[in-house]
Design brief:
Length: 233
């Protein structure tokens, strides 16, 4: 494959997944420029994440698989993504329904995953089968961790009585899922796919459920349903 084809193949999964989650918003899609901005910030996070990870590996080593998966890899990456979403969008006026948290967190996550995918393709070279595997696993994994993050950010913003609890969950749960994803690959090196398939299936099931829940709790949805009932009455 030539360079352009490799780049397009590396970018396509992230853009496709972002479009999928963006269009899952039932009531009011987010400003596309704002989603694009969050995606770009996700791209920009890759380099500092790599620098910090290299520093941690140099200081504490990367031999311990649990520490690497849950702290150096999953922990650091999910914290950086959470930090960007929280500080750029959590108080933003466009974040006006629970599902919006999912859109913005997924945008950051897929920006990160897309550049990571490009770098992997450029450094290692790749085949069609490997590109498909990466689309189904690392790239979609980042998206699903983003759904987890955004779902609880939405709960935190619109259930203020439990804001701190849900903010903590919005950071902790993606770290645990991402860390588990990495840990499976590190520990079960030869047969990791047999553990990863049920893991990703469970994660997708939880993701679809959370998407539906977030849409159901939209204040915009309640307003529209009230208007429909008023017109019928």
């Amino acid at each position: 494959m030539d360079l352009f084809s490799v780049l397009m193949a590396a970018v396509a999964p992230g853009i496709s997944l972002l479009a999928y989650f963006y269009l899952k918003d039932r009531y009011e899609t987010e400003p596309i420029h704002l989603v694009g901005k969050l995606f770009l910030f996700g791209v920009l996070l890759v380099i500092p994440a790599m620098v910090i990870q290299s520093a941690f590996i140099e200081e504490i080593g990367g031999e311990n698989q649990f520490t690497f998966a849950f702290f150096i890899s999953g922990g650091l990456e999910e914290f950086l993504k959470w930090f960007v979403v929280y500080h750029l969008i959590y108080r933003h006026s466009s974040f006006d329904e629970p599902y919006d948290g999912i859109v913005y967190a997924v945008a950051v996550s897929l920006g990160f995953a897309t550049l990571e995918n490009i770098l992997y393709a450029l450094v290692n070279g790749t085949s069609i089968s490997m590109l498909i595997m990466r689309a189904l696993l690392p790239v979609s994994g980042h998206a699903l961790f983003g759904v987890m993050m955004g779902y609880y950010l939405g709960k935190a913003k619109f259930m203020r009585a439990h804001e701190r609890k849900y903010l903590f969950a919005s950071m902790l749960l993606p770290i645990l899922w991402h860390g588990s994803f990495d840990y499976i690959q590190l520990v079960a090196q030869s047969n990791w796919i047999w553990f990863m398939l049920p893991f990703m299936t469970l994660l997708w099931i939880r993701t679809i459920w959370k998407i539906n829940r977030a849409n159901e709790h939209s204040p915009l949805g309640r307003i529209m349903r009230s208007d429909e009932e008023f017109e019928v009455g």
